[in-house]
Design brief:
The complex is a heterodimer of chains A (267) and B (276). Chain A is an alpha/beta fold and 267 residues long. Chain A has 10 helices and 10 strands. In chain A, the strands form 2 sheets. A 6-stranded mixed beta sheet of chain A has the order 6-7-8-3-9-10, with helices on both faces. Classes of the chains: A alpha/beta (267), B mainly alpha (276).
């Protein structure tokens, strides 16, 4: 059984410009791929390429417009309850109740996964310590913490619930170099110590190359390839993933036009 | 890999989730304590503006007292209902504002338990505020109460809360559909419900067609019953209880179905996210 099995997955968004005029944007076009248990797969893509839409579909936060997605054999759109027990995510925004402390935010998240106060009394300090969060700041409101610190709490939240599948949506974007390395180390630890399957969506090519067994390229909703980095380079006869992106799309990775930005707003 | 749990474990899991929602609201109330105090003072001032009208009416003191109590019960129910609607509606609105909505809605807790948790907290918090409001206004204006039946009043409010929470669930869906204006629409629902329920007057003064609508409003029975209990020391009247139970039994499933439909709409159209 695959950890993730996505077949011809399609999602489009409709926005109303005026009373009569609606615009459609296809966010994902018949995306198909699988992920083995324990594997780390990175999906690269520009802004608006459909990475976040893919993560939100697999997180049961969106309903598809065609195709299928299974998480450990459970339908991500019809059988959401078991899927939710297996999946957790870390996204670009840490997303916490800002007035609540790290410990309170973690307790809130943990209760949803059936963890009682008796369990979290010990588990939360332990987990915060493991991600390098200072003990004397556990009771401090999240709004007083730096972005890097908040992201550590986000990682602790994901780790606390022992997810079997971890969805990472640009978890290091906007972090300082040191925090970025700490987050990347944590991702490695999740794999080695917790046997977690990881889907990492990023636009950091080096990060993808360093962490993932296979790298995929999502371009304007289409998955152009998903294979080990060496295979990608060999296939396009290039030395870097940047060059592979150019060879596959005819554009540089940094080159985004109005349509890409529009697509980002839509999704 | 299977994530299907046995039934007993599922129930325990859901109960822990419910505790989590109540606990989170307690944390937030602690953090926003001074704001809540300020909001309570505003509510007291607002209620006083209504209750003072009774003091200006040219009738004997005993009648003034009865009129003030009638206004006060209306003001307290208005405030109580406001809190219930506000907190249940915040199921979506607050989470979206904080940016936690995606994490909460992808968590393995059923939506009825999620909404019920909000309702449970709303009830207890609403009762606490209503009690402070009631006694603050009584003390400020100097209303003389003769043998009020507080126990019965509390019990009736608890029964009415089932319906209020059910209607609150229906309103909670509005911020899912319209992130910008959905929350305000909840206030409209609250106002409409109270205007047909005789909030500061008897239902009999309403036009005939409004009197018919008042029959399906739970606030009508809560107001009527609470007034009798505070003014005359009456007990729980079955005539008030059974309509509240019937409306409650209908409104809770209707609230859940409405919320589920709204959530489905939001998931289809990508509205279940922080930026709306």
């Amino acid at each position: 059984m695959y950890a993730v099995e996505v077949h011809n997955l399609r999602k489009e968004f409709v926005r109303r410009d005026s009373r009569l005029h609606r615009r459609r944007r296809v966010a994902l076009k018949d995306v198909t791929f699988t992920i083995e248990r324990g594997e780390c797969v990175a999906i690269l893509g520009q802004n608006g390429s459909g990475k976040s839409t893919l993560v939100r579909l697999l997180s049961t936060l969106l309903i598809d417009d065609g195709g299928s997605a299974k998480i450990f054999g459970h339908d991500a759109f019809k059988d959401t309850r078991p899927v939710r027990r297996l999946v957790n995510r870390v996204s670009v925004e840490a997303s916490f109740f800002k007035k609540m402390s790290a410990a309170e935010n973690l307790a809130y998240a943990a209760r949803f996964y059936g963890m009682t106060p008796k369990v979290t009394r010990h588990a939360i300090p332990e987990i915060l310590e493991r991600v390098g969060f200072p003990a004397d700041r556990r009771g401090e409101a999240m709004e007083h913490l730096s972005r890097g610190m908040q992201q550590k709490v986000a990682l602790a939240r994901a780790l606390l619930t022992s997810p079997v599948l971890l969805l990472l949506d640009e978890p290091t974007t906007g972090l300082d170099p040191r925090s970025k390395l700490e987050v990347q180390d944590f991702i490695r630890e999740m794999r080695t110590l917790h046997d977690a399957t990881i889907l990492l969506c990023t636009h950091d090519m080096k990060e993808a190359e360093d962490l993932a067994d296979r790298v995929g390229l999502l371009d304007r909703g289409e998955l152009l390839f998903l294979e080990p980095v060496e295979n990608v380079k060999r296939r396009f006869g290039v030395d870097t993933l940047e060059e592979a992106f150019f060879a596959a799309t005819g554009r540089t990775f940094e080159q985004e036009d109005e349509e890409d930005r529009d697509r980002e707003v839509f999704a | 890999m299977s994530a299907v749990m046995p039934r007993s474990q599922t129930i325990k899991h859901e109960l822990v989730g419910l505790v989590g929602i109540v606990e989170r609201n307690v944390y937030l109330t602690k953090r926003y304590f001074l704001w809540d105090v300020a909001f309570l003072l505003w509510t007291i001032a607002n209620t006083l503006t209504i209750v003072f009208i009774a003091r200006g009416v040219n009738v004997p003191v005993s009648q003034q007292n009865a009129l003030a109590t009638k206004f006060l019960v209306g003001g307290v129910i208005w405030a109580f209902l406001g809190i219930i609607f506000e907190i249940v509606t915040e199921t979506v609105a607050w989470e979206r504002w904080e940016g936690t909505i995606e994490y909460t809605f992808m968590a393995p807790v059923s939506r009825p338990v999620h909404l019920f948790g909000m309702g449970v907290y709303a009830f207890f918090y609403g009762i606490l505020r209503a009690t402070i409001l009631f006694f603050a206004v009584v003390a400020f204006i100097g209303i003389h109460l003769h043998h009020p039946n507080y126990g019965a009043a509390l019990a009736l409010l608890a029964i009415a809360s089932i319906s209020f929470i059910g209607i609150g669930m229906m309103c909670a869906v509005l911020p899912l559909i319209s992130p910008e204006k959905g929350m305000q629409l909840g206030f409209i629902a609250q106002g409409l419900m109270l205007v047909v329920s005789g909030v500061y007057y008897s239902v009999s003064v309403l036009p005939h067609w409004m009197q018919w609508i008042s029959k399906v409003s739970p606030a009508t029975y809560a107001l009527r019953g609470n007034r009798a209990q505070i003014l005359n020391g009456a007990g729980l009247a079955w005539a008030d209880v059974w309509p509240l139970l019937v409306i409650g039994v209908v409104s809770i499933p209707l609230g859940l179905v409405t919320f589920r439909a709204g959530e489905r709409f939001a998931k289809k159209h990508g509205k279940l996210k922080r930026s709306g």
